[in-house]
């Protein structure tokens, strides 16, 4: 291990404070760290970095150093790190999850789980997102066993935190199973959801829409996270929290018309 000190860890998620993933993670980590929980009061999946700015947030105590929040995952991290709700404790890391469902590649744009880890990194603190893929399918709500991934995090917490660099989000994905072949550093994959919007007429001048997911197609470079997970490994991927320039803007030889 990198260090033997007792860590201060903030746990959050986007599945809600009553989700089994965060409860098992808390149970595993509480023997080796001081655990603080601030998580959404209800499911907030796929909300990305949504924050509430125009109305107060409501916090409800759920236990010692544990609160639910009426807002979103990013709200939880902002509130924990920028208020006195936890008496201004200095956190060593923010851990988000364990999410019910994978968050790979393109998913990281939409995921509230990843957004919470990203918010921590934006504030200069290690942010680790944990996501579990069901063997029954990408969108399945069943078939999750969080113990093995939670044990991996417990056994490697100091090492995982040491992987942090400024502007570096750490995203960990795994298949729900009782053991793993090992852990791999992987590249991001690309997801094509084949989604569509179906419109239904309400009245002459109004419509309602329904989001429909299609058959998910995943591609990527060799040794991407999806391939690693499908082959029984824990995938550890690091990516920038801040937007990254596509090209050097000074190199563009373009004359605009005015």
Observed structural traits:
single chain; nine-stranded mixed beta sheet; 258 residues; globular; alpha/beta
Overall, the morphology is globular
- Give the topology string: H per helix, E per strand: EHEEEHEHHEHEEEEEEHE
Find the structural class using helix and strand composition: alpha/beta
Unreliable sequence segments: none
Estimate the strand proportion. 25-35%
DSSP strand tally: 13
Count, helices = 6
Largest sheet: 9 strands, mixed
How helix-rich are the residues, as a percent range? 10-25%
Strand neighbour order, sheet with most strands? 3-4-2-1-5-6-7-13-8
Mean pLDDT: 94
End-to-end Cα distance: 60 Å
CA-based gyration radius: 19 Å
Could you characterize the architecture of this molecule?
There is one protein chain. By secondary structure, this protein is an alpha/beta fold. The chain has six helices and 13 strands. The chain has helices at 20-29, 73-82, 107-110, 112-122, 147-162, 225-230; strands at 7-12, 33-40, 59-63, 66-69, 93-100, 127-133, 168-175, 182-185, 189-192, 196-203, 206-212, 217-220, 233-240. It has a nine-stranded mixed beta sheet, sandwiched between helices. Strands 9-12 form a two-stranded antiparallel sheet. Strands 10-11 form a two-stranded antiparallel sheet. Strand 10 and strand 11 (206-212) form a beta hairpin. Helix 1 (20-29) packs across helix 5 and helix 2 runs parallel beside helix 4. The longest helix has 16 residues, at 147-162. The chain is globular, with a radius of gyration of 19 Å.
């Amino acid at each position: 291990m990198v260090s033997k000190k007792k860590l201060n860890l903030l746990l959050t998620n986007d599945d809600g404070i009553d989700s089994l993933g965060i409860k098992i993670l808390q149970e595993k980590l509480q023997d080796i760290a001081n655990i603080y929980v601030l998580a959404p009061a209800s499911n907030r999946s796929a909300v990305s970095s949504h924050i509430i700015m125009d109305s107060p947030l409501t916090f409800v105590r759920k236990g010692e150093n544990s609160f639910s929040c009426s807002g979103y995952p990013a709200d939880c991290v902002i509130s924990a790190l920028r208020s006195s709700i936890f008496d201004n404790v200095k956190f060593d890391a923010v851990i988000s999850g364990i999410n019910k469902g994978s968050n790979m590649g393109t998913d990281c744009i939409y995921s509230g789980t990843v957004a919470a880890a990203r918010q921590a990194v934006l504030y200069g603190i290690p942010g680790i997102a944990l996501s579990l893929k069901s063997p029954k399918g990408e969108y399945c709500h069943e078939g999750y066993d969080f113990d093995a991934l939670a044990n991996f995090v417990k056994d490697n917490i100091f090492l995982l935190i040491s992987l942090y660099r400024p502007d570096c989000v750490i995203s960990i994905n795994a298949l729900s199973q009782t053991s793993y072949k090992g852990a791999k550093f992987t590249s991001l994959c690309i997801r094509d959801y084949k989604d569509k919007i179906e419109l239904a007429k309400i009245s002459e001048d109004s419509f309602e829409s329904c989001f429909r997911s299609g058959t998910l197609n995943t591609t990527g470079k060799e040794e991407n996270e999806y391939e690693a997970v499908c082959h029984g490994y824990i995938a550890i991927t690091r990516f920038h929290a801040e937007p990254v320039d596509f090209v050097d803007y000074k190199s563009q030889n373009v004359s605009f018309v005015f």
